[in-house]
Amino acid sequence: MASRTRGGLGRMVIPAVLFLTVAGCADPGAEPAAARPEPAGPSAAGFDPAAVLAEFDAADSAASQAGDGEKLAVWETGPALQNSLAGVKRARLSKRVLPGFKHQEPVFAVSGSCFVASAKMAVDGEDRPRADVGHFTRAGDGRWQLSHHVMISDELVAATGAFRQATAHPTDELLDAGRRTALTGEVFSRSIAGAADTTVLARSAVLDDQLAAGWSIYTQQMTAAAMTVDRRLTASEWAPCAARTGDGVVGFLTLNVVDTIVSTRDGADAVLAPPAPDLLATGRTTAVKAHTIAVSRVETFLVRVPESGPAAVLGLTDAATEISATG
Description:
The structure is a single chain. The chain is of the alpha+beta class. The chain has two domains: 18-169, Roll (Nuclear Transport Factor 2, Chain: A), CATH 3.10.450.50; 176-326, Nuclear Transport Factor 2, Chain: A. The protein contains nine helices and twelve strands. The protein has helices at residues 15-18, 49-66, 69-75, 78-93, 157-161, 171-174, 177-191, 205-224, 277-281, and strands at 101-110, 114-123, 130-138, 144-152, 166-170, 227-238, 241-245, 248-263, 270-272, 288-290, 292-306, 312-326. A hairpin with a 5-residue loop joins strand 11 (292-306) and strand 12 (312-326). Helix 2 (49-66) packs antiparallel against helix 3 and helix 3 packs antiparallel against helix 4. The longest helix has 20 residues, at 205-224. The two termini are 34 Å apart. Keywords: Signal.
């Protein structure tokens, strides 16, 4: 699990989105496990989600604190792992150790191949637990891995706690293709400050006031530096399972996007320079200068979809995963 920040230019920082630091496998860690033997891997025998989560906490937290990407890949997969690896790279270049973490008072929506967990997350060095929602999938060899993860605000906990002891279902059974497509398009449009259709998706502090506002500031900074940035959606996917609540569904949506950066000056190169957060997230310590710079990123959204009425984004993560330069 990992923290996220918005990429920027040189020493420019976008506070609206820096605020969105998201704890995850590579941002919070668990209580240090030095006094106990390290588990060999996620449990493959039986299925007690509380036991799986406790085992995950001990091992994944230790891997996060150690900055060990290979061990994180034992316990995580998909967008959760991508986000965590970005957090590890940021921490390493910032010369800091990620804190430990431990889930408390979890509730679950469970199926045989995946489960959704909502819990408090105690983070070392913090007085108050955070609220956390994660999606676990079962690999072919029986191992459980975290695939999606976001933090949510305390006032939204009730929206996820409603699936206590519920059954998880395939997302495509709970949400029809038309609604999934409409929500995917609206979430992406809103993430780049596009026109809002609040009949599809209600206003959200994390989406509209933080992520989209941060994008607007970022594009303004680029303009001031004689560059333009364009974001396009390259892929989208709903997590395999979703949790049914009393009046709707809670599920995860992942967007893969690419930011293309070019100079507006004839013959000039675009430049991303330290300490741009996207450089840190991809492990770079020097500036990238080229005719075209492409930043690939992964964004995960926890979405509550009622039976009728607009959906709502409860939480999100956003991390740069790769930077390429051409020309």
